[in-house]
Every structure is written in structure tokens, then in C-alpha cells.
What we know:
This protein is an alpha/beta fold. It is about 35% helix and about 25% strand. It is built from nine helices and ten strands. Helix 3 packs across helix 4 (about 120-135), helix 4 (about 120-135) crosses helix 5 (about 150-160) and helix 5 (about 150-160) runs parallel beside helix 6. The N and C termini lie far apart (about 50 Å).
Amino acid sequence: MTEPRVDEKAPAIDVRELHKYFGDNEVLKGIDFHVDNGQVVCVIGPSGSGKSTLLRCVNLLETPTSGKIFVEGIEITDPDIDVDKVRARIGMVFQSFNLFPHLSVLRNLTIAQRRVKGRGRDEAVAVARANLDKVGLAEKVDAYPAHLSGGQQQRVAIARALSMDPDMMLFDEPTSALDPELVGDVLGVMKELAEEGMTMMVVTHEMGFAREVGDKLVFMDGGVILEEGVPAEVLAHPQHERTRSFLSKVL
């Protein structure tokens, strides 16, 4: 395995000519796309447009059919690269939280630190507590996921990802499984991360968040990127007919 070497000047994420098939179904049709360091890029589009597949290809949860993906200048689609080393730099937050139900919040936050990062117990616990405090859940350290609201579980999932010291964060529709009144707490945590300079790629239906926090808005449909630009500009003056049609339904 090749030891990956970060290129500080390269984009955080650089996707080139990405194709992805599931059987005969081409879900991504030659995507070119990048996220610069410190940038928040929001990806929007109808269900089935390829948004989540693109996101999952970025850390190889889905294997691209063809094309190249670079993370901080490292080609993670190179078969000789140590993917786990690169993946450790990428935090991932899913729609459905993916917490371990049989473990306490603290154990959920320390297990990967211990096993992947090799941290001792005291250091892992200190990091976990600091990140729980960051997401406003310091008092839930001994709780189990079943005793938390959906919004609290999602904030724990964010704290868990942050506990691995990622260089960037991927969010796959992080609020779509939440009751409407719980969405604001999660978006508030994400906004704070953006203000601290965290590089973020966010698949979302939250247009207010995209407008307020995003540096770039990408509209996908049918496995291609139809439009991208400054969020306020795309939302106010969409250029493509398909973008206009989609936004007229969701805004």
C-alpha cells in the first residue's frame, strides 16, 4: 500500500469524470466537481438525482465505476493507495445517525478513537467530552441512543465524527429524518462548524441553510450537475429550466 501524501495546495475534494452504474442503471454520468479547503458546498436536487451516491463515492462507501477522486491531492481511486488512511481524514454524518444502540454516548464517541487512532482511554474520553460539549450535549455522556431525541442522536453522531479530528465533513441529508422542531439544533451545530472553517460537503433539502451558510450551491438532476454557483444567486436567479422547476416546488 502506498502511504498517502497530502498536497496542501490541492482542493479538499476533486472529482473528475465520475461515472457510477448500479447494474445497467447509470446513476452518475461524468461528474466534475470540487470542494476547496474551508468551503461549504451544498448539493441539492430531487430524489434519485445522484446526490447521495456522489457523496458516498467521495469516501468510497460506493465504488466508482470509472473516473478519479482526489482528497487533499491524494487519488483515493488509485488501487494502490491505503484508502483507510485517507478515509480517516473524512468525517461522515448519515441521515439515520448510525449510532451503536447497545453502547452509551461516551462509548459511541470513544470506540473508533481507541481502535483507529490508537488513543488511550483518558485522551479518548477527554476528546469525546469536549465534542459533546461543543454540540450542547455534555450532560448526555452516559445516556443510550434510545433515550435521546432524533436531533440529539444526530448531534451525537456529529460529535463522534469530530472526535476523529477530520479535515473535512460529509453530511448526507442530516436533518431529513428529524421532526421539524429538532432540525434547527442540528443546523446550528453545522453552522458553527462552518464558521470555524471546517470544509463541508452537505447533501440537503434545507434551502435556508444553503443560502445562509453555503459558499457554493450545486443542483443535480438525472446524474449530472446542471447548475452551480453562489447560493443566493442560484436560488434567486436559476439559469436552467430544471433548476427553476425544482426550486419553485421547494422554496
